[in-house]
């Protein structure tokens, strides 16, 4: 299945500005998207987002983040009520090219996504941003993930 994240330019710029505002420290947030099933894939329509407040970081470094489980649980509850897809957003502000998901990112999502899905059975995607671009992926219900285009 092909998945695409569509974001209004003004919203995407606001997300980039915030997540890349504290180099060399990574930052994170969560996006909320409507879901449109289209053949041959799925289109996620980014509606809004919430940055992680400073007090909700358990660890914030140049190459690793940890966010309070309460932050994720609160926003998973919204998705449970609204049926919106969730977009896990974070930055690699020291990167110059298009970023890649790190081993730390992979491990964090492997732990976090099942917990989110236990609260809200909605699509969960992830985006990593750097000054040089962004990369996205969406988690498959059966496990693993696939690349997601961002427009």
Polypeptide structure, described:
A hairpin with a 2-residue loop joins β7 and β8 (133-139). It contains three helices and nine strands. The longest helix is centred in the C-terminal third of the chain and has 17 residues, at 103-119. It has 151 residues and is of the alpha/beta class.
Give the helices and strands, then pairings.
Blueprint: E1 2-6, H1 9-19, E2 28-38, E3 41-51, E4 57-60, E5 65-67, H2 69-82, E6 85-91, H3 103-119, E7 124-130, E8 133-139, E9 145-150
Parallel strand pairs: 1-3, 1-9, 6-7
Antiparallel strand pairs: 2-3, 2-6, 4-5, 7-8, 8-9
Helix pairs in contact: 2-3
What's a concise summary of this model?
The protein has 151 residues and is α/β, with parallel strands linked by helices.
Beginning-to-end CA distance, first to last residue: 17 Å
Strand content: 35-45%
Radius of gyration based on Cα positions:
14 Å
Mean of residue pLDDT? 95
Name a few traits of the molecule:
151 residues, alpha/beta, seven-stranded mixed beta barrel, two-stranded antiparallel ribbon, 3 helices, globular
